[in-house]
Amino acid sequence: MPQRYGAIAQAGHWLTLLLIVGAFALGWIMGDMKMSPTRLKLFSYHKWIGVTVFGIAVLRILWRQWAKAPPLPPAMPAWERIGAHLSHWGLYALLLAIPLSGWLMSSAKGFQTVYLGQFPIPDLIGRDRELGKLLEEVHELLTTILLFVVGLHAAAALKHHYHDKDDVLTRMLPRWRNNGAAR
Fold it and tell me: What is the pLDDT along the chain (183 residues), one digit of tens a residue?
């Protein structure tokens, strides 16, 4: 079993983080904007990122079934092992549920998603204003939960690196090489 995550898993992890930060920033900015062409454009970008995150999450889950995660440190207590597994699968669930809730919300509000401005994605449900408002609240709640779990995930990685002094954090970082020697 590998002792580090491979390049594909690392790329998926860090790309997902960048996309989440971008989607959250756009959501935050456009939430306070008055309706305008700029706001509509930001909504489109936000939705495109969400569709991309959903697709990458599906690929990451499939990849993880094939390329298993490296083992956790042997000294890690059972409660931390359980927490690590629950938080990872919770993150995957949120990476699927949040874009799905956004897609449902857009459908209910009558705004079809057209990925990258070229590829129409069919609405999942019919137009329903009240359901759209409810789904907006669900979308925002799930995003808040995601931010909390990502923060917990990052704090745990830093705790392992600086307090436990194990390789939990570094196994998700790329190895930089100089003339074949690892730094």
Answer: 678 999 999 999 999 999 999 999 999 999 889 999 999 999 999 999 999 999 999 999 999 999 989 999 999 999 999 999 999 999 999 999 999 999 999 999 999 999 999 999 999 999 999 999 999 999 999 999 999 999 999 999 999 999 999 999 999 998 865 444 333
Quote the pTM value.
0.90
Assigned domain for 182 exists: no
Total number of domains constituting the chain: 1
Q: Is residue 179 included in any domain, yes or no?
A: no
Instruction: Tell me if 40 sits within 8 A of 80, measured CB to CB.
Output: no
Q: How far apart are CA 138 and CA 98, in angstroms?
A: 8
Question: Residue 163 has which token pair?
Answer: 């307090």
Residue 38 to residue 26: CA distance in whole angstroms = 11
Task: Let me know if residue 177 belongs to a domain.
Answer: no
Q: Is 6 strand, coil or helix?
A: coil
Question: Does residue 34 lie within any of the structural domains?
Answer: yes
What lies within 8 Å, CB to CB, of 120 at 6+ separation is: 112, 113, 114
d(CA 41, CA 21): 18
The CATH number of the domain holding residue 62 is 1.20.950
